[in-house]
Each structure stands twice: as structure tokens, then as C-alpha cells.
Design a protein that fits this description.
With 272 residues, the protein is an alpha+beta fold. It has a domain of 154 residues: Aminopeptidase (3-Layer(aba) Sandwich). The strands form 3 sheets. It has a 5-stranded mixed sheet with strand order 4-5-7-13-8. A hairpin with a 2-residue loop joins strand 10 and strand 11. The longest helix has 18 residues. The protein is globular and about 70 Å long.
Amino acid sequence: MKIEIKRLTGEMLPQAGNLLAQRHKRNRGSFPLLPMSFEYPQSAEQKVRNIWNAKPDYGYAAFRDEMMVAFLIGEWVTQPWGRCGYVYLPGYAIANGESATVLQDLYACLGDDWISDGVFSQRIYVSAADTNVIDALFDIGFGKERVDAMLDLRLLKIPTVEEPKNIIIRPAGAGDNEHLGNLSHNIMQALASPPYWHPTIPEDYLELKEGWSELADDKDWKVWLAIEEGVSIGCVGFVRNKDDAQDMLTTPKNIGSCVNQVQSDESSNELR
């Protein structure tokens, strides 16, 4: 039976939630650290509803015999390097056994909307378990930008290592504002290089430095500093991941969750 593509509406969200719950259950077969809660259609539907409410004009669904078999929901934001379109983890699903090429058709519609609105940088977060979806997106010109990962710290065996000579590694705290602020430009400079090509305009650097400096006084963050001869040379930060519309990696409100975030925190591929 021929596929019919329709613009997503609020009435379609329960079907989309059901598809997302099925996808999440399959994903957990590969990544058991993912929370079970989103296997329930009600929880999955709420995730779909959250992202759809943010940008209700950027969603499409595919139907076969009046049954939804796939959907794709995106949004766009303005970054320093331009308008960027994103499809987050709750923003796509495809019925089990359905060809992943249907997502190519959905993206053709969504991408056309983005282009019409001047959104030329476009990215889709895809579970690494959905290899057929990744292949289908690669076939239409997407490429891998990065891979994020999850780790259960309760099961991790911490090795004993020799501390590096002449380098002090310690928790950051009050008075370390300058140490942390001086590291703020490193990531931005790296992102401006291939394969990211994400430049940061010069006037934003001061604001970024202030934000990094404030981590020294932020009680929600646990930051460790590496200092050599009085100069900060690196840091790593941990913060409890908060439930939001884009997240399907932790249980709602972090009940029973021990997953920490260090820059990236999801078992997914980001494609562009």
C-alpha cells in the first residue's frame, strides 16, 4: 500500500507516542542503560508532545492504510554560526519492519521547510541502535559528526593510576573563577575546526568566559581542575542531568538515576 505523508497535527501525537515507545523498547535491547519508563506509550507521547509544542509547524508523519508508520519532528534555533535545525531523540520513530527510506521522504518535507526559513545547518540525533536509520540518512548526504555515550558509574572499576608529575589535580571551588574562565576558549576554538566548522563570533568570548568562571561558585556542578605551574590546563565537570523535552536518557525527575553529564551524555549519533 502506498505511503501517504501528512503534516503532523496534535491529534496524531498518541500514534507518534506509541511508535516512539516501540522504538525505545527496541533501543533498550542494545542499550539497557536507557530508562524503561519510555517504553510506555503515555510517557513516550509526553516527550513527543513536548517537542511538537515547541515548534508545531515542523513535523511530518507517514501513514500506510491510515496507520502511522513513521514520524519526524524538528525545530530550529539561532546559533552564532547561523540558524540550525535539530531533530532530537524523541523526534523520530519508524514502525518495526518498515523501510527506513520513509524517513528520507519525511526529511525531504522537513528539510524543505527549514530551507524556506533560512535554516541551512541541519542535524538529526539518532540512536546508535537504529543502524538502518543511520544508513538511510547517510544515503541522502548526512554524515557523522560525533558519537555520545552513557556509562553506569556504579559498575565502573576505577583503576589506580600514577599521578602526573608537576600537575596538581583537585576539585575546583571558590577562588578558581579565573582558572576556569581561562579554559573557556579551548572548546570554541576546537569547534571552529573540521569536522565541526562551528565558529564563535569574537564578541561572545567574554560571555563564555564569564559563564565558565561562574562554575567555580555553582553548587550544582562538581568540577575538577588540572593545574601546572599555576596555570590551568584542563578541567572536567559533572552535573546531574535534568529532565527536559529532548532527553530520553534518564528517568523523569532523575528518580533512581546516577547518570552524570560531562559535555555529552547520550547513546546516540549526531548526524549532519
